[in-house]
Each structure stands twice: as C-alpha cells, then as structure tokens.
TrEMBL record:
It is an enzyme of class 3 (hydrolase). Its cofactor is Fe(2+). Its EC number is 3.5.1.88. This is Peptide deformylase. Keywords: Hydrolase, Iron, Metal-binding, Protein biosynthesis. The active site is at E148. Fe cation binds at C105, H147, H151. Belongs to the polypeptide deformylase family. It comes from Kordia periserrulae. GO terms for molecular function: metal ion binding; peptide deformylase activity. It holds the Pfam family Pep_deformylase.
Amino acid sequence: MILPIVAYGDPVLRKVAEEITPEYPNLDTLIENMFETMYNAYGVGLAAPQIGLPIRLFLVDATGFAEDEELDEEQRKQLEDMKKVFINAKIVERDGEPWVFNEGCLSIPDVREDVFRPESIKIEYYDENFQKHVEEFDGLAARVIQHEYDHIEGILFTDKLSALKRRLLKGRLTNISRGRIKVDYKMRFPDAKKIR
C-alpha cells in the first residue's frame, strides 16, 4: 500500500524517533508498504518519520547507483547490495574528509542542494528479522544512510545548509508545508491539513 509522505513543516520530522521491538505491530507489512511508497516516489531511501511514524526505522535501496561509471569496483559492489532495512540504528563512527553531493528529499520536493557529509561511517542496526549488524559503508552508500539516519534524529538535509542558503529557501519551504507544490506522489501537508 502506498502511504502519503509527510511534507516539510510537520512536527514528526523534528522528533528524535523511538526504538522499537520485534513485537512492533505489523512490522513486515509496514516495511513492505514503505518500500512500495519509496519506489512510487522514485526515492532511494525512506524513514518512518516521513510517513508520520516517530520510530527508529528506515530503509534504503541505492542499487541503481551501482551503474555509475565513476565508481571503483569496491564501491560498485557495495551499492549492488544496498537494499537494506535499518531498525534502531546508531552511527558509532564517522570518518574521512567531508565531501559534497547534491541531495534532495521526498519530504522536501523540488529542493536540491549541495550537502557536505563525512566519507565513511560505521553503523550498528537490526535488520527486518531483528538480526544485529555492525557494518562500515563509504561513498554514496554512506551518504544515503546518513541522510536517512538524520530523519530518525529529527534532522533534515536543509539543516546542514548555510544560514544564507536557508534564508533563500524559506519561501519555497513555506510553500511546501502549505501544499502549494505539484508532486507526482501522495503527500500529507501540515499547514494544508490535507493529503494530495
């Protein structure tokens, strides 16, 4: 089932999400619905707060990036296996030189900006079967994970921009929160009190 994606301005996007247990109701169905919602919106990641749930769950599918010709073999291999579910994730280490990449967000449609993030991360998380993992990721894989991880910490990519850039975007962000934007996927707008 395709769920509405919560738009910029909704308070759920600013909450630090809560951990869940294996007994979380209908978790398999929720994960399936989140993947379907993400694919419908042509996203590469989706966090539970983006569908209105303040829980520590996000998923990514960055396999499409593996076709990028500029990647080395190791990065390509990491991205080929990059369809994952992250539950109760905790980034335990960030390393490497911060590098820039143009990011967007399904909750902030039609806004893309250059964001600096560390090159590599080490993350502890549980998968959809509640098996614990500790893994290291770098490059694009690390970036996608960090973007989604920020969502469960109540952080948006726009928070990482300069004060001037945020001021320049203020009008566009207000329009998004009020539903004054055209999108090709189902969204819930906080100020418009409606789903489109």
